[in-house]
Amino acid sequence: MKFLHSVTLSQTNLSGYLPKHWHPNLTFVDLSGNHLKGKIPLSLTRLENLAHLNLSSNSLNDTIPSTIGDLTSLQNLTLASNSLSGPIPDSLAALPGLVHLDLGSNQLNGTIPNFIRDMKKLKYLNLASNNFHGVLPFNATFIKRLEVFKVGENSNLCYNRSTLGSKVKLGLRLVIDMGCLCRHRRLRIHPLMIQVTVPMMKIIATWRKRSITADQVRWFLVLQLGFLLLSFS
Question: Does the keyword Cell membrane apply (predicted)?
Fold first, then answer.
């Protein structure tokens, strides 16, 4: 077991609790799609070489441990579709190399912390289907860096027009126009998913049911806003 670096047991009907002991050389752990329950053990957050952690689609509960910030090599953190509660821990700010952060479909609450917008390498952010409240702390510069951005289904989460501006240009197209909103009004965001332009060799995509030809150099985004409900405050 000296050279064990990866544990992949996704969708294998595992049940019970996460183990308390982990091989110190692990860089990749995927236990998604099982029946695991209980807390995320502190021992899992002591794996200093861990780059990929996927515990999604289980029945994990309690809070995200503050020691998650000790995983300084972490690039992918996927904890979606569990029963995790509490706020996003401030210790996540200690993970400058994080590229993929998926905390969707939990019971997380509190405000979305400002430090997320300072994660320069972040490309995928899913905070949808939680209990976050307050105003999104993100601006246009941050959103344009992302490839996927999901914040829908947080019933008390609002968007302040003055932070993002009335128009945002992503990729080759003008995809958000909020010019109809008054300056001091807020937009309550329901299902919202933004997938941002990235250069690719091959892509199959549609925009309003029209095919995108494969000879374009850069690709724009697919934008699904769902329902936007105005909340005046």
Answer: no
Distances (CA, A) of 18 to 34, 61, 142: 11, 12, 35
Residue 219: which of 195, 194, 193, 199 has the closest Cα? Answer: 199
On whether residue 1 sits in a domain, the answer given is: no
Characterize the bridge pairing of strands 131-135 and 156-160.
parallel
Q: Is residue 189 in some structural domain?
A: yes
Note the pLDDT tens digit of each residue in 4-17. 899 999 999 999 99
Please give the tally of structural domains in the chain: 1
The model's pTM is 0.75
Contact 72, 50 (CB under 8 A): no
Output the domain CATH number for residue 131.
Answer: 3.80.10.10
Half-sphere exposure of 228 (CA within 13 A, CB side): 14
